[in-house]
Specification:
Elements lengths: L1 H10 L7 E5 L2 E13 L1 H4 L5 H6 L10 E12 L2 E5 L7 E3 L5 E5 L3 H7 L9 E3 L5 H4 L18 E5 H5 L1 H6 L3 H7 L3 E4 L4 E3 L2 E5 L8 E7 L2 E5 L8 H4 L11 H15 L4 E4 L8 E4 L8 E3 L3
Parallel strand pairs: 4-7, 7-8, 8-9, 13-14
Antiparallel strand pairs: 1-2, 2-3, 2-6, 3-4, 5-6, 10-11, 11-12, 12-13, 14-15, 15-16
Length: 294
């Protein structure tokens, strides 16, 4: 157990590489696009310096939270669905605020390592419409006039798309315009792919969605930005600075943590360092979020 926890501590301080697990006939894979470095006190504003001094395992050598940026590939037979699409081929650094630096650009190469081309993707299903989840869906094929995901439609929750004026007010008019011709809105509970259903969980954004994937007697909940750091699993009341409604997000996160502790349930958190797949295990001796690798 001690060796296992040392390994997990190292994984908490680095972004994830490609990782895959199977749910019966369905294969799900984390597709890396890049990484994000977050200022812990600015991200989780209810925390204190004492909190982070007591939990150095979450911080890298520069005192930042290391986060992953990417997407979830869902494969069933010859069919392929992508949940979110990373940050895209760009970088951003900020002198203050929650994000210190964020870099994308690797998603297409990562897909190739998994044996997939962008044109294989039949749909991109978004958890929400923030820049680090829209990424490649807003970019054209280099030298061409077609989107990178040439054959994909873009699936967005009804509430999220209806609230897109909030994004436009934040300067994302071009991204919304790039998505619009391919958007198909999805209702709460609707199946979007074999064994994959959307459920709408407002809080982080007005129409934030999660995707529940079932197969092989297990289920996986791709919970988007309901959780930004594994430490929130132990402290679900700590909402992120990015949350549209912090109280509502905390309420949902408490329910989500309980659900992730149920037998046969796996969670997927796209930003959760190198522990993107996990299960909640409460025994009082270690952090509740435990990595799942198979």
């Amino acid at each position: 157990m001690a060796d296992l926890m040392v390994d997990q501590d190292a994984r908490l301080r680095r972004p994830a590489g490609i990782r895959s697990i199977r749910l019966g006939d369905t294969k799900v894979s984390y597709v890396p696009d890049g990484e994000v470095r977050l200022r812990p006190r600015d991200l989780l504003q209810d925390t204190t310096d004492e909190v982070w001094a007591a939990h150095p395992e979450y911080l890298d050598a520069t005192g930042h939270l290391a986060g992953s940026v990417g997407a979830l590939l869902v494969e069933h037979g010859d069919r392929a669905l992508l949940i979110d699409s990373g940050f895209g081929p760009q970088s951003h650094e900020a002198p203050d605020g929650p994000i210190s630096a964020i870099h994308g650009g690797a998603l297409v190469r990562s897909l190739a390592e998994l044996g997939r081309r962008p044109e294989d993707i039949e749909a991109v299903a978004f958890t929400h419409l923030h820049a680090d989840h829209l990424g490649w869906a807003c970019h054209l094929v280099p030298g061409g006039d077609q989107p990178v995901f040439t054959n994909a439609e873009y699936l967005v929750s009804e509430q999220e798309w209806e609230g897109r004026d909030l994004l436009e007010a934040q300067g994302m008019t071009e991204q919304v315009a790039a998505l619009a011709p391919r958007v198909r809105t999805i209702a709460d509970g609707q199946e979007v792919f074999p064994g994959v259903r959307m459920r709408i969980t407002p809080g982080h954004t007005v129409g934030h969605a999660e995707y529940v994937i079932t197969g092989g007697g297990r289920r996986l909940i791709a919970f988007g930005d309901a959780v930004h750091s594994p430490i929130q699993i132990d402290h679900p009341d700590w909402s992120a600075a990015f949350d549209h409604d912090t109280a509502r997000t905390a309420d949902h996160r408490r329910r989500l943590v309980a659900e992730l502790a149920e037998p046969g349930t796996i969670g997927f958190g796209v930003h959760l360092a190198d522990v993107v797949f996990g299960h909640v295990h409460r025994d009082g001796t270690a952090p509740a979020w435990r990595a799942v690798d198979a």
